[in-house]
Design brief:
heterotrimer; A alpha/beta; B alpha/beta; C alpha/beta; B: alpha/beta; eight-stranded mixed β-sheet; 8 strands; globular; C: alpha/beta; Pyruvate-ferredoxin Oxidoreductase, domain 3; Alpha-Beta Plaits; 2 domains; two-stranded antiparallel ribbon; 8 helices; 10 strands; binds iron/sulfur cluster
Chain lengths: 393, 311, 303
Amino acid sequence: MSNRVGIEVSIAVAEAVGLCDVDVVAAYPITPQTHIVEHLADLVAEGKLDAEYIAVESEHSAISAVMGASATGGRAFTATASQGLALMHEILFAVSSLRLPVVMAVANRAVSAPINIWADLSDVMPQRDTGWVQLFAENGQEAYDLMVQAFRLAEDHRVLLPVMVNLDGFTLSHMIEPITMMERDEVRRFLPPIEPARLLDPDHPRSIGPFGAQDVYTEAKMQQEMALLRSEGVMEEIWQDFEAQFGRRYRAVESYRTGDAEVVLVTMGAVSETARAAVDEMRDQGIAVGLVRIRMWRPLPQEQLRQALEGAKVVAVLDRMLTPGGTGGTGGPVGEALRSIFYDAPVRPRIYEVVAGLGGREINRRTFKEIVRQALAGQEQVRQFTLLDVRCA
Amino acid sequence: MEAAIDTQKISMKSLPAFEALASGHRACQGCGEVLAMRLAMKALGERIIVVSATGCMEVITTPYPQTSWLVPWMHVAFENASAVGSGVAGALLALARKGRLAGGDTKIVIMGGDGGTSDIGMQSLSGALERGHDFVYLCFDNEAYMNTGIQRSSATPRCAWTTTCPLGEEQPGKQEAKKDLVGIVEKHHIPYLATATPAYPFDLMNKVRRGAQVKGPAFIHVLAPCPTGWRIPTHEVIKVARLAVQTRDYPLYEVVNGKYILGKPGKNVKPVAEYLKAQGRFKHLSENDLAAIQQEVDERFAQLQWLASRP
Amino acid sequence: MMEIRFHGRGGQGAVTAAELMARAAILDGKYAQAFPNFGPERRGAPVTAFLRVSEQPIYLREKIESPDTVVVLDPTLIDLVNVADGLKPGGMMVMNLAASGRGALAKYGDQFQVAAVDASRIAVETIGIPVTNTAILGSLIKACGITSLKTMEGPMQRRFGRLAAKNLLALQRAFEETEVPEAPAAPSPAAPAAGQEGCTYAELLQREALLVWDQLQIGCDIDLPGSTAAFHTGNWRSAGRPYIDREKCVSCGFCHVYCPDLAMNFTDDGAIEWDHRYCKGCGICAEECPKGAISMREESHEQ
Ligand code: SF4
Ligand code: SF4
């Protein structure tokens, strides 16, 4: 295939954003997001992308600027990581509440202190409740494809919500790997020009972001929530179209060798490929293990997850963020979500929760094998989760 | 494309009939800030997009389901109006270039109070000024956080009472000087900068118009008395704002491409005590305090004269 | 438990009144709560504050819907807001009203017990300004008990410092001058309808019927430019309105330029016209008119 190239994933992500004909990019540099925005700056500087690149003075201003651009009718993009995402936190709520179809890439990285630049999900997980659609890429191809799909989802008038595409810092963002690139015409066919649902226009004045008292705030939240829930179905439609045009199939939840699995691993993000390799090796050893990967985290595809995990005796979930001080079963947010999903089920799997990979601590095949070994052995858990590999005296 | 901003000089005869704000807004009786905003918007006309920081003006003009605004208006948060405005500017440029911009030329107007400008919004303002987007920034300075109930900001003048610089035995009123916001903005070397107050409405409107005509950032600092926070009777709002100018506590001037232009000197300069004594927030001042403030005022004005004397 | 609603205007101290009373009741060993009702309206706008007093611990943190008593600090509110809204049949109304204006109370007479006092006059005579939030408490104590004048001294001292003595005098005077009539024999349960166009924020929202979640504009936008014009802030005036002396007015337009509320406007033939619907009564126009053509005077309803 002629379009298949070896490329750094960050560069590919920027290329995808470029193919989407964005109008405004506003960004502030932070490791490990930098290569994405540097490459976008290159595209603009070289005249390959007709957009305004606003080199803002902080992430807070980056997300604010893309809001302004989006409200003016432009297609807008930003990218960040870690502290930068934390700094944006306040404004993330406003983007979704004002229903602005902004797209953001997050090169996931741990949050200070101690300062640490490597991958985990402790930057994005605290943004869970900001009302964004949140997608997680497993590999470079997926990160690249999701960027294009994200704009289409965000701008769909049934949705009109911001979309966040997460890719693991370094282990995914800085990887050179083969990616099948799309052509501009193909992308234009898949992603129609943005049609703003409303905008700041002197010919049709409106007030965006008014003061909403007790009487209307609840209704505003309801409107927003219904749109977010609706986005699950719209995303599925978009994935079907994408498959028809590009031949690559995406689902909110991916299952791998779960058929007769006794224990099913649940993962998100780039570690999932390693998990798959570990599953294969364990299968070879006769262990009935499968893998479920969550690609869409918000809105949570509850029904798909429940079905994917139905029949498993043990669900071994890997969280890459610790929920501090949680009560039993809330070692991390994914574990917590799974426990909720199965609370009402007639047959509940045992949920074995592990928190690992914090601050870029290596997660390899041995990690998954150990998780499965512990889960099958019914190992005792303090507060119902295990912080894997923590060094003790 | 038709220019967004009318270039005619505004006088009572040529007063634009246009109002960007409807009545029925919820500002306090005698609010000097809403008046200043009304006048500024009159000067700007209808081809504008307004981005507002959080504050009194945002709350009192948009109580859902009503809005006072007759021009497009957007509010996101307290500290980021300049950044939101930067994004609007970016999109207008890109869309115009790509032939996707509906309507004609549009001017971006970013506005905030003293807190939203010289405190929490300082960073995003500085960034936007440095990047040089094409916008007019209106800072309506009423010298404290009035929206939350009169708390001290960096723009609160020395000695003034607020609820967070109360009149304690140890520390009567604000101990520190007012932040030199205009000086800070000036150091960004933007093409147009001016001070104004609604007590001189035509001066204010013409400065706003001049600022809006330059390409790039323009900054209008407006001293806008708040009767509630300054502890003044509502009918004296304009009188007090005028005294600020007449006593040289708040001199009117412009900085055009770096050149300081001082407003016409008043015939008889009044002692600053007249301005201060008119306000309840200064009623505790001793003669010594008044003398010290007078000295500060004189020094500041001398420096301004020196700046204006440079070629 | 007794539940009380205070009606005042932003800046008149209704919240302070509720607070002072709560502090006094707590000093008496009772349980009490005082809390404001915040909205976007500012100084001058009709506002409410709430007070609960009980011999037993209070485990309620909700708004008061059907008070036992309402207290009205500002006589101009009586025609503007439904001060009797939700008031229990036979409930107490403590009203600040000059003797000459008491005719307005007739409509309440057979449903509620109405205690009236000229708190504005008392306040001017004792404190020097027509701030009625302390005087009215004297009337409330006379009408409902709750606490004693003696207990009020501590909280008043704490709140007003060197101005406490004058405020206590206002309290005392109002206590003495308040007449509390007998309760109506068989109070009718129906509350009187609101005097004028509903003017609370909540009522307005109801009327606009823009509150159903799937009918909101995307992102809760407002696409009704200039729609606050439907909200008449004229009822924020409490201390007079501007009168234009046509002999003196030269139609120079300065009042139009300086009015924060767009309530002085040119008519088609170039005259200046006052707009009662929006004027908040700040007095700037009168102060700034170069011809001295505007005076602020108490509103006479004939004009
Ligand atoms: S300012 Fe005075 S003279 Fe001028 S138009 Fe108004 S009322 Fe008439
Ligand atoms: S008193 Fe005069 S200036 Fe004030 S709101 Fe009324 S008309 Fe306008």
